[in-house]
């Protein structure tokens, strides 16, 4: 908001109002998520994803986060041993589903799901919003889609 106001002071009121409205919308979304995750039993609050893009989500909403690639999408594919370790962690937690994302090839997660004997849930939006008209076209829509997908897969 401040950078927009600095670049276009004639519309400062609009930027200030829009920012205030969006902050309220984000607060409401946070409340929705806090209530909705109560549908998932605590032991099932495990997000196994392609990479650790959900670390902040997990910390805020009480999920343990595990991943095949660590914190980056640029990492080389994991070794057979690393995959086997992840499969064992999935089996140990008895998580019912794991998640691919909308920006990486799902083959690795398909393989891990098969080996662990769990469902591969529909892909989550992660590092990029979806196309116009999709359920991930805005941040708020993306978060609600991801929330619904996570709840349906883990409850």
Topology summary:
Blueprint: H1 2-7, H2 12-36, E1 46-49, H3 55-61, E2 64-67, H4 80-93, E3 97-101, H5 107-116, E4 119-124, H6 139-154
Parallel strand pairs: 1-2, 3-4
Helix pairs in contact: 2-6, 4-5
Short description:
With 155 residues, the protein is α/β, with parallel strands linked by helices. The protein contains 6 helices and 4 strands; from the N terminus they run ααβαβαβαβα. It has helices spanning 2-7, 12-36, 55-61, 80-93, 107-116, 139-154, and strands spanning 46-49, 64-67, 97-101, 119-124.
What would your notes on this structure say?
This protein has about 160 residues and is an alpha/beta fold. It has two domains: about 1-40; about 40-155, 3-Layer(aba) Sandwich (Rossmann fold). The chain is built from six helices and four strands. It has helices at about 1-5, 10-35, 55-60, 80-95, 105-115, 140-155; strands at about 45-50, 65, 95-100, 120-125. α2 runs parallel beside α6 (about 140-155) and α4 crosses α5 (about 105-115). The mean pLDDT is about 90.
Name some characteristics of this structure.
alpha/beta; 2 domains; 155 residues; two-stranded parallel sheet; Rossmann fold; two-stranded parallel ribbon; 12% strand
């Amino acid at each position: 908001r401040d950078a927009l106001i600095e670049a276009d002071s004639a519309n400062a009121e609009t930027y200030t109002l829009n920012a205030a409205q969006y902050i309220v919308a984000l607060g409401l979304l946070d409340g929705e998520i806090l209530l909705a995750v109560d549908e998932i039993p605590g032991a099932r609050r495990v997000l196994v994803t392609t990479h650790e893009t959900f670390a902040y989500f997990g910390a805020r909403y009480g999920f343990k986060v595990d991943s095949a690639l660590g914190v980056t999408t640029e990492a080389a594919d994991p070794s057979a041993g690393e995959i086997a370790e992840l499969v064992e962690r999935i089996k140990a937690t008895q998580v019912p589903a794991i998640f691919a994302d909308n920006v990486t090839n799902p083959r690795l997660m398909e393989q891990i799901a098969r080996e662990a004997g769990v469902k591969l849930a529909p892909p989550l939006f992660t590092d990029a919003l979806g196309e116009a008209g999709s359920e991930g076209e805005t941040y708020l829509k993306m978060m609600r889609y991801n929330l619904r997908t996570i709840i349906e897969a883990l409850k």
